[in-house]
């Protein structure tokens, strides 16, 4: 991405290149500082981050303990090759293995999720002498490198399609999955338990458990991508535990770094990488590893907050669904909430989804829509674990006010729901502490 060096008009007019690839902002915003659930731009305007910077900050921005640990590490060493180790690297590895499902006893670190998924693919392929195909579920998303784009939902008419030769899409039914396992003899299958990027699709428990049985039957590596669900936002360390499934490989990322780049894989003893197979110059960055260790220590006391906030998210979304006929399919698991935007005929409406996100941004509330602009119709909410109930209700009041602008025919007095009435008594002056 080429950045425009002239940032003087960034707030009022997007600079070319700065908003490429975004799925959240409709305009480029220069952020000055952040703390907790809030961001401030250079003009002093405050934003509620109801998306935790794409699932990356369950503890909010600039957690004090994480920052303190990083500052100490900065005075020691900032870079080491992967062959070298530190006390924090060893301790973090042991801690992750301790938290992982039983039997997953190896850890490999990289700096971002796409590389972590590629590492899982390499582990699966390396286990066999004659297998190189990877199955993936329809609507799955696993990264933006060429390899991971090949096992993700596809952009229409993608120019990179010639590189997508080894990924084989399967439907979300066991019959199709078994047929393609038999026909293609793949090395592995990769799934998300909640398909975040394509619209917060929550997989059925029976489907996931059925995939585990098929992997055992056909000797296929089961990879669960928990980059968007691991270490906090679901109220557990790994969501696969809620599905009563132990995969062969778990991919993790995003949250674990506490705001610093960190990702990786956890896997069973029998899988391995040859020396140099998946080693990168900055993969085991000492600063990120220290941040990850500090993050896990800070995460434990607040994990249960998900149980308090999750019912409030789903209740708010269901109340919105009752009030607005164009918003349907309210759903939530852990702190991942979503609702779909439909047109008057019940079909996906991407334009209004984009409009709602843009209007919310102007009112100081950050959420996201699924896929890319003009491709997704799902509005997604994921507040950090540290968000208070009062802050959460404030966010949904703002959401409701934007929906009244987009769908003015709804009668707010007759259809307003109890949850908004109960909390309207709070004095929410948004730009005051």
- CATH structural class of the largest domain: Alpha Beta
Task: Give the beta-strand count.
Answer: 17
> Mind telling me which CATH architecture of the largest domain this is?
3-Layer(aba) Sandwich
Total discrete domains: 2
CATH topology of the largest domain: Aspartate Aminotransferase, domain 2
Indicate the overall shape: globular
Find the CATH superfamily of the largest domain.
Type I PLP-dependent aspartate aminotransferase-like (Major domain)
What percent strand?
15-25%
Number of helices: 13
Gyration radius, in Å: 22 Å
Structural class: alpha/beta
The SSE string, one letter per element, is: EEEHHHEHEHEHEEEHEEEHHEEHEEEHHH
Spatial order of the strands forming the largest sheet: 4-12-11-10-7-5-6
Can you summarize the main beta sheet?
Answer: 7 strands, mixed
Distance between the termini: 36 Å
| Share in helix | 25-40%
- Average pLDDT, all residues: 90
């Amino acid at each position: 991405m080429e950045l425009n060096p002239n940032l003087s008009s960034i707030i009022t007019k997007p600079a070319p290149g700065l908003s490429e690839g975004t799925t959240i902002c409709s305009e480029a915003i220069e952020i000055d500082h952040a703390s907790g659930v809030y961001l401030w731009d250079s003009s002093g305007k405050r934003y509620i981050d109801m998306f935790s910077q794409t699932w990356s900050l369950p503890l909010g921005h600039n957690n004090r303990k994480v920052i303190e640990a990083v500052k100490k590490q900065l005075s020691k060493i900032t870079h080491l090759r992967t062959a070298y180790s530190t006390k924090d690297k060893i301790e973090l590895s042991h801690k992750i293995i301790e938290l992982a499902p039983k039997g997953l006893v190896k850890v490999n670190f990289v700096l971002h999720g796409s590389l972590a998924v590629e590492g899982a693919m390499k582990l699966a392929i390396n286990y066999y002498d004659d297998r190189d195909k990877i199955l993936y579920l329809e609507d799955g998303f696993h990264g933006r490198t060429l390899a991971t784009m090949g096992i993700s939902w596809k952009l229409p008419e993608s120019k990179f399609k010639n590189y997508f030769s080894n990924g084989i899409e399967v439907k979300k039914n066991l019959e199709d999955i078994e047929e393609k396992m038999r026909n293609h003899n793949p090395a592995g299958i990769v799934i998300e338990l909640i398909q975040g990027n394509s619209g917060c699709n929550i997989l059925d428990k029976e489907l996931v458990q059925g995939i585990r049985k098929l992997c055992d039957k056909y000797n296929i590596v089961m990879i669960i991508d928990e980059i968007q669900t691991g270490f906090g936002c679901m109220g557990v360390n790994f969501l696969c535990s809620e599905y009563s499934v132990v995969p062969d490989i778990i991919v993790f990322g995003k949250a674990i770094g506490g705001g610093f780049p960190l990702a990786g894989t956890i896997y069973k003893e029998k899988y391995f990488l040859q020396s140099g197979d998946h080693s990168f110059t900055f993969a085991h960055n000492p600063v990120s590893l220290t941040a990850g260790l500090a993050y896990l220590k800070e995460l434990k006391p607040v994990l249960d907050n998900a149980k308090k906030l999750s019912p409030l998210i789903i209740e708010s979304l269901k109340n919105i669904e009752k009030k607005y006929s164009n918003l349907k399919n309210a759903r939530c698991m852990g702190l991942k909430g979503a609702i779909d935007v439909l047109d008057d005929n019940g079909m996906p409406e991407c334009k209004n989804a984009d409009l709602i996100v843009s209007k919310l941004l102007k009112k100081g509330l950050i959420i996201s829509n699924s896929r890319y602009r003009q491709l997704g119709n799902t509005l997604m909410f994921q507040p950090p674990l540290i968000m208070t109930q009062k802050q959460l209700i404030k966010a949904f009041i703002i959401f409701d006010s934007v929906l009244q602008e987009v769908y003015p025919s709804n009668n707010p007095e007759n259809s307003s729901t109890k949850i908004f009435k109960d909390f309207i008594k709070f004095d929410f002056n948004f730009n005051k502490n």
